[in-house]
Design brief:
By secondary structure, the chain is an alpha+beta fold. The protein folds into 2 domains: about 60-300, Thrombin, subunit H (Beta Barrel), CATH 2.40.10; about 305-405, PDZ domain (Pdz3 Domain, Roll). It has helices spanning about 40-45, 60-70, 95-105, 150, 285-300, 315-325, 340-345, 365-370; strands at about 70-75, 90, 130-140, 145, 155-160, 165-175, 180-185, 205-210, 220-230, 240-245, 255-260, 265-270, 280-285, 305, 310-315, 330-335, 350-355, 360, 380-385, 390-395, 400-405. The strands form 4 sheets. It has a 6-stranded antiparallel barrel. It has a 6-stranded antiparallel β-barrel with strand order 8-9-10-13-12-11. Strands 15, 16, 17, 18, 19 and 20 form a 6-stranded antiparallel β-sheet that branches. The longest helix has 14 residues, at about 285-300.
Length: about 400
Amino acid sequence: MALHRRLTVRPLVAAVALGTTALAGVAGGAITADQRQDGLSERFVAPGPAAVAASGVHASLSDMVQAVGPSVVQIQVKPAAMVQQSSSPMPYGSDDDELAERLGQLFGFDPRGGGGQQARPSQPQGPQRGALGSGFIVDASGLVITNNHVVDGADRVTVQMSDGREFAGRVLGRDPKIDVAVVRIEGKGRFTPITWGDSDHIRVGDSVFAVGSPFGLGNTVTSGILSARGREIGAGPYDDFLQVDAAINSGNSGGPLFDSAGRVVGVNTAIFSPSGGNVGIGFAIPAKMARQVALQIAQTGHVSRGRIGVSLQDMTPEIASAIGTTVQKGALIAEVDDSGPAARSGIQRGDIVRRFGSTPIDNGRDLARAVASARIGSSVPTQVLRDGRTVSLDLRIANEGTAQS
């Protein structure tokens, strides 16, 4: 069943149709040197040694689960604190309207909000219920990463620890574009942070396990393998999901995906489901992407992104034939904003971007992610193919503003 089928159960991240032109403005915003001075970057950026020894064959996950358990929390959004309601991972792929209606009532949003439109909350029948999801601690001061769609519409949440303690939490900021939010626990004491893993180098077939609160059942562990990398599911311009077969259900949203050594490699956020429940196809935001965004939120309360002012199209054999080239990889510039930084840098419609700085570009998503990691205000050496010849230019990264709640 293809991922591009109609959305029937929809949280708060708007979908785009797969294979269409992406990005009127591509984003950037790397962490600058002065942003690292407060020490938070050490907790957010650098992967560290395993929390549990990784040598040998593990007959049981119990030691690792015990080690990481105190770092995983449950996020509760009370009805009075929220405007929108959704705590489930993003389910894709069901055409059953009756099932969609039941799930919409269960999860608190209108199932008719699919088709690329942002879902609206359904009218409550009886007492209004709050949202519930998962999260994990990334700093001993009490900073928690979760999904944007878990806390969207709320400024205050309740954070429940694995030992049952509850603390008030304040939403510091959110980034709908990759579905990440940061919450600060407002309570005394030191909290146990996770250890970051290396999401860039985890391989298909590697063991993974998830910890979270599916359907409100806290401290639940599921395990499986990494099924695929680089999945595009239509959630946004920066789609680069890890696919896993570990069970992910409503309430797992925002929870951590661990590697076999107990290090976080992803943030569980979406499922593909003909039925609305787990069928063994789940998706996680890569840890590297999540922590870069979360660090900006923790330090500034928002995410700054750059803009180059283009629309992108992946190169395909059909497009290559139509424009008379043998090149079948790269990001095709479909449109250029005449007043944008790309136009001022010399980019033209029909250019095929093959390299951005030191990064080879095979498709539009490659360029989107490369620009997203570039420093705002910088000029990046870029190579494009134009009329069969290579043209080098310096592409200026401008600031489109801030993304927050």
